[in-house]
Write a structure and sequence with these properties.
The protein is mainly α. It contains four helices and no strands.
Length: 82
């Protein structure tokens, strides 16, 4: 079931109204700048510090797990460099 152009326009209007009511900004660019400004403010207060640390720890854990599981592909290249 495809969306008609009228349906798409209605969805677009609903999204715009939600963004405007959430941040009071009518355009996507203003929404983006307001969101970045709010994130900077929260980071400077230290409110997001724990969340950022959790994300970094999870990313590094996944990275090292991936490197360990794929070690056969890069291990030989390191041995050949000696």
């Amino acid at each position: 079931m495809a969306l008609t152009p009228a349906d798409k326009k209605e969805i677009e209007n609903i999204v715009k109204k939600e963004i405007k009511s959430f941040l009071g900004e009518p355009t996507i660019k203003k929404y983006e700048t307001e969101l970045i400004k709010r994130l900077k403010k929260e980071i400077s207060k230290g409110e997001l510090r724990g969340d950022i640390n959790d994300i970094i720890v999870n990313m590094m854990s996944e990275y090292y797990y991936l490197m360990w599981s794929k070690r056969n592909t890069w291990q030989n290249n390191l041995r050949n460099k000696k």
